[in-house]
Design brief:
The complex is a heterodimer. Chain A contains 12 helices and no strands. By secondary structure, chain A is mainly alpha-helical. In chain B, the strands form 2 sheets. A 6-stranded mixed β-sheet of chain B has the order 6-7-8-3-9-10, with helices on both faces. A 4-stranded antiparallel β-sheet of chain B has the order 2-1-4-5, with helices on one face. Chain B has 2 domains: 1-74 and 148-232, P-loop containing nucleotide triphosphate hydrolases (Rossmann fold), CATH 3.40.50; 77-146, no CATH class. Classes of the chains: A mainly alpha, B alpha/beta. Chains A and B meet through helix 7 and helix 8 of A and loops of B.
Chain lengths: 246, 232
C-alpha cells in the first residue's frame, strides 16, 4: 500500500499552488495546436509502427539463429539510445544537407521541423519498444497451434488472424500502449528534429519558458489524460473481445 | 495412395524408410520409443523436412520440394490435442471448413458431435476441456473435412482404457465409412493390432519386419520386437 502511495505521489503535483492556471504561453492558440499535432502525428506514427513492427515481431518470435540475433541487437540499440542522442543522430542522418534530406526537399518534403520529421522521429522512438513487447506477446502463443491451423488448410494470413492475433491481442494491446505513451511523451529527440510543429511535450517546455508553471498546468492535464486512457481503452477492449481466453 | 521414401538424419542414426499404402488401407508403424516413427509422420505432415527421398499422396507430390502445410490434405493427430483455446469446441471442429464446406457438411458435423458425445460441450471454450474431452474434440476437428489421409501419432497416450476402447471403435467405424488411408504410429501392441492389419516394424530408423500383425506376434524378427510384443 505504501509502495502504491509512493508510486502515485508525484500526481499530487497537480494540486500544487502555482497560481491561477492559464491555457497559452506567449502565442495564443499554440497550446491547442500542440494537442492536435501530438494526437494526429502520434496516431500516424503508431499506425506505421504497428504495420512495420508487427510482422518483424512475429518473425523474431518464431525464428532463431544468427540473423535474429542481429535483428535483436539492432532493435536493442534503437531502444537504448538516449533520446537526445537519437534526435541529434536523426538530424545528422536525415537533415536537409544530407542526400536523403535534399532528395525529400526536392519532392517538397522538409526533413526537419516538419510533420514528416516529427512522425519519423516518433517512429524511431517507438518502434523498438513496440517490437520487443509484441515479440513477447507472439512468443506466448504456442507455435504448434499455428502449425495445426496450417495443417487444417488455413493460409498463413488466416492462421495469423484466426489464431495468432486473437491469442496475442492482450499482449499486442500492451505493446501498442507502450509505444503510444513512449512516442506521445517523447521530448529529447523531437526537440532536436521537430521543434516546429510543436507537440505537447515541446509546447510544455515553451509555455514553461514563456509564463512559468501556471501556463504548464492545463496542458499537463491534457497531456496526462491523452497519454493514459487510450492504452487503458485498448487493453479493456482486448480483454472484452477475448471471452474464451480469460 | 501414399508412396513415400523418407530419409531423415537423426543424431545417432538415419531414418530410411519406404512406405506404400493404398487408398483406404490401414497401416501401422510399430516399434520402440526413439526408433524414428514420429519423424516419418512429421515428414509426411510437413513439420520436418526429409534430407532426401520423395513423398507422394495421391497425385500430389509433398516432397521435394516441400509442399506448404496448408496444401497438404491430411489430418494429423498427436497426443497433444492442440485445440485452439480461444475458440469454442464448435468453432474448433468447424475450423477447417470454408463457409460452403460448412453448409455441405452440416449433417456430418452433427454426426461427429453426436457420436463423440460433444453436444453438452459444443459451445464450451476448448481451453477448459478435460483430457478425454479434448481428445474427442480434436478427433472431430480432424475428421470434419473428410481427409483422405489420417496420420495418428500415439493418439491415445495418457487416456484411460475405456476412453481408448470407445475412440478405437469410432475410428474403426469412420474409417470404414470415409475410406481414408490410416497411418498409425504406436508402441502399444494392443492398439496397433486393433486398428491396423498391416504393420511396419521399425528399429533405429530401418524397417526390420513387415506384414500382418499376427505374423509379427508369432515370429518377431528381432529381440527388441519380441520384448515389445511380450505380455507384461
Amino acid at each position: 500500500m505504501l509502495f502504491v502511495a509512493a508510486l502515485l505521489y508525484p500526481l499530487s503535483g497537480l494540486f500544487a499552488p502555482v497560481g491561477s492556471w492559464q491555457w497559452d504561453g506567449d502565442i495564443p492558440g499554440s497550446t491547442l495546436a500542440s494537442v492536435a499535432t501530438s494526437l494526429e502525428l502520434t496516431a500516424i506514427a503508431l499506425l506505421v509502427i504497428a504495420a512495420i513492427g508487427t510482422p518483424i515481431a512475429w518473425h523474431l518470435a518464431r525464428k532463431s539463429g544468427r540473423r535474429s540475433i542481429l535483428w535483436e541487437a539492432a532493435i536493442l540499440i534503437s531502444v537504448l539510445l538516449p533520446p537526445l542522442a537519437l534526435g541529434i543522430l536523426l538530424s545528422l542522418a536525415f537533415g536537409p544537407t544530407t542526400w536523403i534530406g535534399s532528395l525529400l526537399l526536392r519532392m517538397g518534403l522538409a526533413s526537419s521541423n516538419s510533420p514528416l520529421a516529427f512522425t519519423v522521429t516518433q517512429v524511431y522512438v517507438g518502434m523498438g519498444y513496440y517490437i520487443l513487447a509484441a515479440r513477447a506477446a507472439f512468443t506466448a502463443v504456442p507455435a504448434e497451434l499455428e502449425t495445426m491451423a496450417a495443417l487444417l488448410g488455413r493460409s498463413p494470413a488466416q492462421v495469423f488472424w484466426r489464431v495468432t492475433f486473437p491469442l496475442s491481442r492482450l499482449g499486442l494491446a500492451a505493446a501498442l500502449s507502450i509505444a503510444w505513451v513512449r512516442t506521445l511523451g517523447e521530448f529529447g529527440a523531437i526537440v532536436v528534429t521537430a521543434y516546429y510543429p510543436a507537440g505537447m511535450p515541446v509546447q510544455l517546455w515553451i509555455n514553461l519558458q514563456d509564463r512559468g508553471l501556471p501556463a504548464v498546468m492545463p496542458l499537463l492535464v491534457v497531456f496526462l489524460v491523452s497519454a493514459l486512457p487510450l492504452p487503458w481503452l485498448a487493453y479493456i477492449l482486448a480483454r472484452r473481445r477475448h471471452p474464451h481466453h480469460a | 495412395m501414399l508412396d513415400a521414401h523418407i530419409v531423415k538424419r537423426r543424431r545417432s542414426f538415419t531414418v530410411d524408410v519406404r512406405i506404400r499404402a493404398a487408398a483406404g488401407e490401414r497401416l501401422a508403424i510399430f516399434g520402440p520409443s526413439g526408433a524414428g516413427k514420429s519423424s516419418i509422420l512429421s515428414c509426411i505432415a510437413g513439420l520436418e523436412r526429409p534430407d532426401a527421398g520423395e513423398i507422394r499422396v495421391g497425385e500430389t507430390r509433398y516432397f521435394p520440394p516441400p509442399l506448404p502445410l496448408e496444401r497438404r490434405f491430411l489430418a494429423y493427430l498427436t497426443q497433444d490435442d492442440l485445440l485452439f483455446p480461444h475458440l469454442s469446441v464448435a468453432e474448433n471442429v468447424r475450423f477447417s471448413l470454408s463457409a460452403e464446406a460448412e453448409r455441405k457438411n452440416r449433417d456430418w458435423v452433427a454426426e461427429l458431435r453426436q457420436s463423440l458425445g460433444l453436444e453438452a460441450l459444443w459451445h464450451a471454450p476448448a481451453g477448459r476441456l478435460s483430457g478425454g474431452q479434448a481428445r474427442r474434440a480434436a478427433l472431430a476437428r480432424m475428421l470434419a473435412r473428410r481427409p483422405p489421409l489420417v496420420l495418428l501419432d500415439e493418439p491415445f497416450a495418457g487416456l484411460d482404457r475405456q476412453v481408448v476402447r470407445e475412440l478405437i471403435r469410432l475410428l474403426d467405424r469412420w474409417q470404414e465409412k470415409l475410406r481414408f488411408t490410416l497411418l498409425l504410429v504406436g508402441h502399444e501392441a494392443e492398439v496397433v493390432e486393433r486398428l491396423c492389419p498391416r504393420v511396419l516394424a521399425l528399429e533405429q530408423g530401418r524397417v526390420v519386419q513387415e506384414g500382418a500383425f499376427a505374423d509379427l506376434r508369432a515370429k518377431p524378427a528381432t529381440k527388441v520386437l519380441a520384448q515389445l510384443l511380450a505380455p507384461l
